[in-house]
Every structure is written in structure tokens, then in C-alpha cells.
């Protein structure tokens, strides 16, 4: 039977990218199709049953002897942000595949069904919606999903249809099993484990997060002939707003995080006063009330600016995800396994969002981290050593063994 290492899978998937000098694999792009096809083909080579659902999530499963309807479920995502690292999401899929295939090779058929889900999309880096793969598995996708458009005006349904139909040429159509419990292993994407010199993070909670798209509408005009007092400069008003929001975030204080990561200026020409600016806001905190406080102060600031400058400022909140707590019994089992294996561990919360928080809506979940060098992620500098990757896979493997055999 074929064998493969976690690092080999990560290296192979990292080659599927839409940009020459960097890793960018946005959902439903050709690089995404090639990566998901590789995952499905690999699962088949390793003797797993493989299917792809209508969102494009790959389901790699092993039937259990007990013939139950549900499955012990492991998963993460293979889509990426722009100019990404190679480990975010992909590590969880790779570790799940290797752990399960090693278990079957060592112990034969499990008692319970096991499935590894390579979710179609988690990041929200192409369309204004995230977690679409795991939301589909739990049957909770937003109504307007198919009409959502990316920055090129391509709809979610066009992109999905074009990509998933390619996967279904070689991989069979199918659905995930009902989820008995869900486990995700992921790089930490932060500095805590490295600073604490711990090998495994046992994650008890995932932050609440809200994401907005803010549109400032001004009046395009000549940069040279328009007096400053007569301008409706969309970019300047956006800057005033962002500067004030930064002060509000500092006044509320850590661990609130506030990010403006994306900005589009129209018409984006040096001698034209910008008529429109669209920018993103991402805020996170374990306490939803703190996010609400920030949002209330943001809306008050926007009302003030609209009055003062008679300009239109539109707010679209497209993500409003509450904080989630993982299952204490499953975390306790992870803790016990780390102690038995003499692996150092640290109980912590996650500042990053994960598919775990969606699966947590329907089933008990566990989330474990491995260290990120210098805490860097969503960057080509993202790195985790092969040793740490394998320690995580070994803990996950023992964890699945306890649950499924
Ligand atoms: O943005 C996040 O928290 C995750 O990496 N999707
Ligand atoms: Mn991720
Ligand atoms: Mn990410």
C-alpha cells in the first residue's frame, strides 16, 4: 500500500498556485481544482473511498465495521489567502490523511466510519463569504451565496460550476457522512506556542469575528482645478474614518484586533479626486459585546462624517460569527494523550477563525495547534518544522484511534 508523509503532501499542494512567485489558491481557481483533484487521487491511492460534494469538498473515508450513519470526522481547507504560506489549512488535511491511512495500515478496519474532509473554502479571500465548504456540510449556507461576486464580477455559482464539474470528471459525486464529532489540526498562526516552547496547543475557544465592506461615495473631479473646500474626496474621508477607528480600537484595547486589509480606490488615477473607495474591516474578540461596542462607535463616527461632509458611507456586514467553545471532554482526551506521550502542550484560544467553529454548531469538536515560526501566517514566511508537523500528526492519530477503533 502506498505511503506518503505530511511534508510531501504540503509540498505538492503548495505547487498548485495561480501566481508564479507566490502561493495563491483562491476557491474554484484552476490551481484550486488541481489541488483538490490531487487530494482526491491521493486518497484513492491510499485505499480510501473518495467523493466530492457539490461545493467541491473532497470526502476521503474509511468504512467502519459498526455500519453507523455518522463518522469520526477530521478536516480543514485547501483554499488560501493571496500571497499565502503553504501550511494554513493544507496541514490539517495532510495530517488527517496520513494519520488515517497509517491507522488502517497498522490496525485494519476501524469500528467507526472515519472521514477526512478537504473543505472547498474557508478563507473568504475571493467572495464576501467564508467557511462555505463546512457550512454546506452542516446544511447552513446563506441564501444569497450563488449570486455573490468576486472582484472580477464572476458569481460564486459560475465559478463553482466551472470548477466542481472538472473534479466530477474524475472523482465521484457524493456527500459527507453525518458528523459524530469533528477534529481539526492547524498551524497556530500566532507566537504563543513558540514563546511558551510548547509542541501542541489544545484550543478551548475560537474568537468571535465580524467583517464589513465599507463604501465611501464622493465626487470624482480634477486634481488641479478643484479647490480643497469644494471637494468630496472619497479617499480622504475613508482615511479620516480609518484613523478614527484605529483610535477607537486602541481605546477599547487588546485583545480586540482591528484590521483594514483590502482597499479599492476608484478610479485610482494620480490626477483624479477619488469618487469611490471600498475597504474591508475585520474585528475579532472572544466577547461579542466588545465587537458590538466597536461597531456602535464605528456607526456613530460614520453618522457624524456623513453629516459634516454630506457624503454617502455604506456599511455591509457580511460576516458575524460568534465565539465558539470546543468540547471539554475531547480537549481532555487530547491533554491526556500529550501527557502519555510526554509531549508538551498548552491550553489556549484561537485568534484565527477555523472550520471547527462551523462544525461546532452541529457536533462536539476538538482543535489542536502546532507552532508557527515567529508566529507568522498568511505570508510566504509561514513555517512549521517537519518535526512539529509530525508530532501533531502523531497526537491526531492516537486521538482518532481512541475515538474510532
Ligand atoms: O482569517 C482567519 O482567521 C483564517 O485564517 N481564515
Ligand atoms: Mn486556516
Ligand atoms: Mn487562513
UniProtKB/TrEMBL annotation:
Keywords: Hydrolase
MF GO annotations: hydrolase activity
Domain Peptidase M20 dimerisation: 211-298
Pfam families with a match to the protein in the record: M20_dimer (PF07687), Peptidase_M20 (PF01546)
Xref: CDD domains: M20_bAS
The keyword Hydrolase appears for this protein: yes
PANTHER family named among the record's database cross-references: ALLANTOATE AMIDOHYDROLASE, ALLANTOATE DEIMINASE-RELATED
Family: Belongs to the peptidase M20 family.
Protein's name in the database: Zn-dependent hydrolase
Lineage: Bacteria, Bacillati, Bacillota, Bacilli, Lactobacillales
Amino acid at each position: 500500500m502506498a505511503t506518503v508523509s505530511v511534508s510531501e503532501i504540503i509540498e505538492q499542494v503548495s505547487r498548485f498556485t495561480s501566481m508564479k512567485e507566490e502561493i495563491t489558491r483562491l476557491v474554484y481557481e484552476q490551481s484550486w481544482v488541481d489541488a483538490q483533484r490531487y487530494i482526491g487521487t491521493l486518497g484513492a491511492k491510499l485505499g480510501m473511498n473518495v467523493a466530492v460534494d457539490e461545493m467541491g469538498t473532497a470526502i476521503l473515508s474509511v468504512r467502519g465495521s459498526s455500519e453507523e450513519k455518522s463518522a469520526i470526522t477530521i478536516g480543514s481547507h485547501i483554499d488560501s489567502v493571496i500571497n499565502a504560506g503553504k501550511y494554513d489549512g493544507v496541514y490539517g488535511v495532510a495530517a488527517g490523511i496520513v494519520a488515517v491511512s497509517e491507522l488502517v495500515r497498522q490496525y485494519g478496519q476501524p469500528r467507526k466510519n472515519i472521514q477526512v474532509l478537504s473543505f472547498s473554502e474557508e478563507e473568504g479571500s475571493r467572495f464576501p463569504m467564508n467557511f462555505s465548504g463546512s457550512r454546506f456540510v452542516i446544511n447552513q449556507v446563506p441564501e444569497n451565496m450563488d449570486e455573490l461576486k468576486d472582484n472580477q464580477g464572476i458569481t460564486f455559482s459560475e465559478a463553482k460550476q466551472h470548477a466542481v464539474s472538472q473534479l466530477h470528471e474524475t472523482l465521484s459525486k457524493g456527500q459527507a457522512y453525518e458528523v459524530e464529532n469533528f477534529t481539526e489540526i492547524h498551524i497556530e498562526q500566532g507566537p504563543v506556542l513558540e514563546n511558551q516552547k510548547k509542541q501542541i496547543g489544545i484550543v478551548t475557544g475560537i474568537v468571535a469575528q465580524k467583517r464589513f465592506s465599507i463604501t465611501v461615495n464622493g465626487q470624482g473631479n480634477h486634481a488641479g482645478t478643484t479647490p480643497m473646500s469644494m471637494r468630496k474626496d472619497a479617499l480622504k474621508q475613508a482615511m479620516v474614518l480609518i484613523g478614527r477607528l484605529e483610535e477607537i480600537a486602541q481605546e477599547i484595547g487588546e485583545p480586540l484586533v482591528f484590521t483594514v486589509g483590502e482597499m479599492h480606490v476608484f478610479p485610482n488615477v494620480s490626477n483624479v479626486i477619488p469618487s469611490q473607495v471600498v475597504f474591508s474591516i475585520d474585528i475579532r474578540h472572544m466577547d461579542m459585546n466588545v465587537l458590538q461596542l466597536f461597531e456602535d462607535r464605528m456607526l456613530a463616527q460614520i453618522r457624524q462624517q456623513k453629516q459634516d461632509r454630506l457624503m454617502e458611507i455604506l456599511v455591509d456586514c457580511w460576516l458575524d460569527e460568534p465565539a465558539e467553545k470546543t468540547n471539554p471532554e475531547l480537549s481532555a482526551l487530547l491533554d491526556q494523550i500529550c501527557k502519555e506521550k510526554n509531549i508538551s502542550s498548552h491550553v489556549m484560544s484561537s485568534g484565527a477563525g477555523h472550520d471547527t467553529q462551523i462544525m461546532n454548531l452541529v457536533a462536539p469538536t476538538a482543535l489542536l495547534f502546532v507552532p508557527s515560526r515567529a508566529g507568522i501566517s498568511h505570508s510566504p514566511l509561514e513555517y512549521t518544522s517537519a518535526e512539529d508537523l509530525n508530532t501533531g500528526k502523531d497526537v491526531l492519530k492516537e486521538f482518532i484511534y481512541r475515538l474510532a477503533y
